[in-house]
Write a structure and sequence with these properties.
Length: 130
């Protein structure tokens, strides 16, 4: 009887882990076309400006991932822009520094932060796009 319960428990755990019942934020590469399409979708949009060498960026990404997995952010679109290689798209966004997060609701910017990896303040920023 115990083995049957363990087997059932493992089977159910595997089902839930492989199903789409858990929201998972997807980081997509920033392109101008993807950005325009995302803003027009009506979903909240986060532009995450990162650099591979940046320790703050490395702390931000898992924080955004964890927060984005919350049900209230299930429609969040995250576009990842590279600070070092995408200067042409960052200039019109007025990005001066890596580790910049910019939140949009529709066509409008609702908030931004730079150099912040604090989960509470990132949540506050993301909520401006809901």
């Amino acid at each position: 009887m115990i083995m049957r319960s363990i087997t059932l428990g493992l089977t159910l755990a595997g089902f839930f882990a492989s199903s789409n019942l858990v929201n998972s934020v997807e980081f997509k590469k920033f392109t101008q076309a993807a950005f325009e399409q995302a803003k027009k979708s009506g979903n909240p949009v986060l532009v995450e400006v990162h650099a591979d060498w940046c320790p703050t960026c490395k702390a931000q990404k898992p924080a955004v991932q964890e927060i984005g997995n919350a049900d209230k952010f299930k429609n969040l679109i995250v576009l990842e822009a590279d600070f070092d290689t995408q200067k042409d798209v960052l200039k019109p966004l007025n990005v001066q520094i890596q580790s910049t997060l910019i939140m949009y609701k529709g066509l409008n910017e609702t908030g931004r932060s730079a150099g912040d990896s604090n989960k509470k303040s990132i949540i506050t920023l993301l909520e401006t796009g809901l």
